Amino acid sequence: MAISISLHQQSWPLAQPFRISRGVKSHAQTIIVTISDGEFQGIGEAVPYARYGETCASVAAQIEALGCEFSSDAALQHAISELKAGAARNALDCALWDFNAKSQSQSVSKMLKIPLRPLTTAQTISLDSTQNMAVAAKALANAPLIKVKLDADSVLDKMRAIHVAAPHSKFIVDANEAWNFDLLKAVLPTLKQYNVALIEQPLPADNDQVLAQLTPCVPICADESCHTRHQLAELKNRYQAINIKLDKTGGLTEALALLDEAKQHGFIIMTGCMVASSLAMAPAFLIAQHADFVDLDGPLLLSSDIACGFEFHGTQMAQSTPFIWGEVKAHSNKIAEL
Q: What are the Mandelate racemase/muconate lactonizing enzyme C-terminal domain coordinates in residue numbering (predicted)?
């Protein structure tokens, strides 16, 4: 039976503006793909990211260029594999995994032999004034892991205030490529004193080779510098950790391969996300089962999540029953009306 694909754009209002070193946004714009053979239906969500030259229009065009109908799931899988790593491939790949789970009456976690357990996710503090970031940290003071978005301005002042507000938390500092090498070297020792456990992408991805000269007291994590397993060899002497995001890998298939090879290389594993609904987090949750750091709080940044998404109890996230993706007994997979 022929398999068809369709897509639509979803705009998710955020609970409050989300600011990083590259800018601020009030909505998360995603692409949702549906794969169907008339009996079974699979869905996947991806986030087009301007940093990588993507827009909703360009991602939709990539998907539409494949055509809307395929003779089999194998034919569709081949077409997906021909796409470059990015949001378009991610949405299609994850939708196909979900479709196969439904059509084969077996959950994705069982197909992959990855038992699912509740996980602790980082909670994110958006870039803001020192005072406002301290207030946000105080509200999260019981969180074991907090992710802090920073630029190059007042790094130590902000982290000092945040650490005072949440003295028992550990921190991931995410600079989104906003620092230079001198700043990184200058702040490292003090950041360690402030319970910073990981520093994510401090330098621009095209200027990170200088990290080979550094033996950091806090592990440095590649985000923008690491998309697929093919980059691991050159990153080995620069970074101690990598952040696996499905919108970079181009879906769960490559994310699994990246996870396996990164562990062989001895990298610390972080599982991250773009801001999106639980539908986008669901396949990443499988990768997160093997991660040292989990940052999948995207749905908590939305004013409302998709139906049958993750249940969050403080910093703990677990699949709901029924669940939106990858489960045989999930609901009908009709996209919820918001």
A: 130-221
* Domain residue limits at 86: 3-105
Q: How far apart are CA 255 and CA 274, in angstroms?
A: 15
Beta strands 69-70 and 3-20, pairing class: antiparallel
Q: What is the DSSP letter of 337?
A: P
Instruction: Spell out the residues 6+ positions from residue 300 whose beta carbon is closer than 8 angstroms to its own.
Output: 15, 123, 312
Note whether residue 223 is domain-resident: yes
- Diameter of the chain by CA atoms? 61
Instruction: Tally the C-alpha atoms within 13 A of residue 222's C-alpha that lie toward its C-beta.
Output: 29
Residues 144 and 258 in one domain: yes
Domain check: are 94 and 149 in the same one? Answer: no
Question: Structure pTM?
Answer: 0.95
pLDDT in tens, 86-145: 999 999 999 999 999 999 999 999 999 999 999 999 999 999 999 999 999 999 999 999
What's the domain count of the chain? 2
Give the Cα separation of 309 and 298 in Å (integer): 12
- Strands of the sheet containing 119-120, edge to edge, are 119-120, 316-319, 310-313
Do 152 and 83 lie in one domain? The reply is no
